[in-house]
Amino acid sequence: MKKYEIVKEVYNPCAPDTCEIMEREVEDPEAFVRDIFKDDKSADFSVTEKDGAVIVEVVCEAAQRHRYTFSEI
Fold first, then answer.
1. Helix-, strand-, coil-residue percentages of the chain, each rounded to 5
2. Could you give the CA distance from residue 38 to residue 35 in angstroms, rounded to a whole number?
3. How far is CA 17 from the centre of its chain?
4. Which strand (E) or helix (H) includes residue 31?
5. What is the CATH T-level fold of the domain 2-72, as seen in this structure?
6. Reported pTM
7. DSSP of 17-71, one letter per residue?
8. Confidence bin at 44 (pLDDT 50/70/90)
């Protein structure tokens, strides 16, 4: 497993945006995020890479958007 700094950003049209930073050991960043949203059938996922970081974006009902940026430590 690799150790990542994870920046979790939530963009919500009906509430203030939030940001949280954490460190975790994760085998697969995409699988980690998919597991969080496993019960949300409306979740639409996209995965990109930028400057060595893995970015997983999730769009849910009511246009709520979550962005997880994984930077290896």
1. 15, 55, 30
2. 5
3. 14
4. helix 29-36
5. Profilin-like (3.40.1840)
6. 0.91
7. -EEEEEEEEES-HHHHHHHHTTT-TT-EEEEEEETTEEEEEEE-GGG-EEEEEEE
8. very high
Question: Tokens 């970015």 identify what position?
Answer: 55
Counts of helices then strands in the chain (DSSP H, E): 1, 5
Cβ neighbourhood burial of 37 (10 Å; 0-12, 13-18, 19+): middle
pLDDT (tens digit, 9 = 90+) per residue, 45-73? 999 999 999 999 999 887 889 999 999 99
Q: What are the C-alpha distances in Å from 17 to residues 12, 14, 35?
A: 6, 9, 22
Single-letter residue type at 61:
E
pLDDT tens profile 9-22: 999 888 889 999 99
- Phi then psi for residue 52, to 5 deg, are 85, -5
